[in-house]
Amino acid sequence: MRRTRHKGSSHNNNERWLLTYSDLITLLMIFFVIMFAMSQIDQIKFNALKMSLQAALKSGTAIPINSGSTSLIQSAGQGGAKIGSPSALIKPSKLDHIYQQVRKYVDQHDLQDKVAVVDQVRGVQITLRDVVLFNTGEAVIRPQAQGLLAGLVPFFQRISNPIVIEGYTDNVPIHTALYPSNWELSGARAVGVVRFLISKGVDPSRLSGVAYGQYHPVAPNNTPYNRQQNRRVNIVILRNAQSTKTIISPSGP
Predict the structure, then answer these.
(1) Buried b vs exposed e over 25-46: b needs ≥16 C-beta within 10 Å?
(2) Model pLDDT for residues 215-250, shown as the tens digit of each residue
(3) CA-based torsion, 235, 189, 83, 73: positive or negative
(4) CA angle, corner 65, sides to 96 and 107, nearest 5?
(5) Using CA atoms, how far apart are residues 38 and 106, in angstroms rounded to an integer?
(6) Residue of 147, 43, 145, 149 lying closest to 89 (CA atoms)
(7) Rounded Cα gap, residues 169 and 189, in angstroms
(8) What CA–CA distance (Å, rounded) separates 154 from 126?
(9) CA 245 from chain center: how many Å?
(10) Most distant CA atoms of the chain, gap in Å
(11) Cα 18 from Cα 7, distance rounded (Å)
(12) For residue range 107-140, what is the model confidence (pLDDT) as tens digits?
């Protein structure tokens, strides 16, 4: 009787490896199922989620996620967002390269105090201080600034994306024969930059101008320095093939 029980116990011990083996096979199967599922991520949905998070965390500032995919969201002006159809989207790889090139150009020419370059959800934004481009209360591009703008033109010509020029002012009232308000001043400055880019060979069909006046400040208008920050011109290379609505035409007033 003891010998019989001993044989049964030995037989059970010899087959315990089957339990470990079956557990291992099950875990391997689960692992490969997960890997397969991860490889089948819907890229479009991932991009939409990525861009939504960027807009929610900090409007107008992109989080660098290099997915090598197209963008689905283009900001409308400086607020909100609108979804573009996939057929109207431009792959961002070239635009990302342009961003890096413009940043390098600014650094190499020590233009950091005059030009700021930001990679945004809506596109690459190049911000120029008004004191660099214009005399106070004027919209004629200064001769010294024409060389700076001309140096940026080759970057604009390497891609076919639409470009919007945005004019901004501070909240100090202006009332002259040419510019009855800050609206007219900011609009004339945007148009001035549009006309200059056209004169340097940028396709007019890619360009549009927008007048924002004093209503989109980046700093409180409570010090001379802050007011200087608000007086600016943005040149935005859009990611989406559908440009923002043209508010000011190049022919202008």
Answers:
(1) eeeeeeeeeeeeeeeeeeeeee
(2) 999 999 999 999 999 999 999 999 875 544 434 434
(3) positive
(4) 45
(5) 40
(6) 43
(7) 10
(8) 14
(9) 18
(10) 119
(11) 18
(12) 999 999 999 999 999 999 999 998 999 998 999 9
**Hey, what are 13's tokens?**
């011990």
Run of H or E residues at 125? strand 123-129
Q: Are 166 and 117 in contact (CB under 8 A)?
A: no
Q: Work out whether strand 123-129 and strand 115-119 pair parallel, antiparallel, or are unpaired.
A: antiparallel
Q: Rg of the Cα trace of the chain?
A: 29
pLDDT digits (tens, 9 = 90+) for 21-54: 777 888 888 877 777 666 555 554 555 555 555 5
Minimal CA–CA distance to 65: which of 121, 104, 127, 124? 121
Q: Could you identify the residue written with the tokens 């400086």?
A: 78
Q: Which of 186, 109, 187 is nearest to 152 (CA)?
A: 109
Share of the chain above pLDDT 70, in %: 65
For residue 218, what are the contacts with CB-CB under 8 A and spacing of at least 6? 229, 230, 232
Residue 182 has pLDDT above 90, yes or no: yes
DSSP string, 193-212: HHHHHHHTT--GGGEEEEEE
Instruction: Give 91's strand partners.
Output: none
